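Hi everyone,

Forwarding the result from last night's run.
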Amino acid sequence: MSPAAAASAAVVPPDFTALVERVGPAVVNVTTSGMRDPASDAVGQGPGDPLREYFRRFRPPRQQEVPTRGIGSGFVIDAQGYVLTNAHVVAGADQVTVLLPGSKREYKAKVIGLDRQSDVALLKVEAANLPVVTLGDSDKLKAGEWVAAIGSPFGFANTITAGIVSAKERSLPDEIYVPFIQSDVAVNPGNSGGPLLNTRGEVVGINSQIYSPTGGYLGVSFAIPISVAMDVAQQLRTEGHVTRGRLGVGIQEMSSQLAQSFKLTDARGALVTLVDRGGPADKAGLASGDVILRFDGKDVAEAADLPRLVARTKPGSVVDVEVWRDAAGRTLKATVGAVPLPPEEARRVPSGNASTRQGSGSLGLAVRELPQAGRRALGIDYGLLVEGVSGVNADAPLQRGDVVVAVNNQSFKSLDEFKRQVAKVAPGETIALLVRRGEASAFVPLRVGKE
């Protein structure tokens, strides 16, 4: 064969027919339904928005909720009925339905757990002997390889599209934990949650999002590596939430100009811009201006590498952190902390003994002890989980899932101690509760009423 003929043969796309026949039966349609408050779309209604409380108090009366429907894809990873999909496909849904297009079997699905940070959700249907996909090794995937996507774009079941891997370990804005696989496989609404497959028919990723100013496919799509997705799925299956390591630093990319000023031979590593006071990095001796070159024996080639390496490390682990400081290298020992759970995840932490749920009558506050798993996730010694607010403080900016950690800046170590601290304040006076909501902390004033 001549070189020209060999080059021509090399670019012939593979035949995906056998792949579709083998994998297609394990790819499912995911449909969701629920009710939505139209007022939730108003300005100032996003989580953390400073206007949220204003709108909650002063917006017009609540409008009638309207029904919503959504579509997506997923795939069966266990013959006993476990299905992987995207978190954004099922988030907020009241009902989730899984359809196996090949057999026309339809099942009501339970959301075992979802992780918004990685956009992975684990579903469970009550069925047995389901067709199952074969999982591949996303770490071995290379740029230039042929890949295919199977899903339900616009509801058209078992649609296959193909392309090549454009790049690996892509960093996207606000997506610090996922090293995305970029490809030019056509992905459209309804494809989300479906598998990205190599030519052997192995799942190497979950199709998650596209890059487009118009909302339509323009040749750039992104998938979550299956190694990341399966780690998340295992934690959701066993714990109901995902635990990630935390170092407690702010970082930026190292440029060639900065490298020269720090007397580094090349632009690599993560430049520390701030250190959380009292956090794991602070306790380990890291300082602003350090350049982190290696974490737990792994190179930090660029700043985006560090959050992923830290997140994969089990909280409580003691690791070596190699830094560049004052034109010399040194190694520090750090005990990795835990990223606090988002409020919706903290609410899913098992409650333990229901008898611990009690109220503080003078505050109108229903609370219970935060279980040990929740304390570890938030990095606190003790706290009380808010379950409701009524009475004199019904309009207080507290919500179910908030965690109270101090009264008038004084911590407490038991529910009884919390009650004693509240009892010291006379009716009609105001106390300040220090409250954790995810990674944020704030003092919330409450008026003390009569028991």
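The domain at 245-338 is CATH 2.30.42.10 (Pdz3 Domain).

Cheers,
N.
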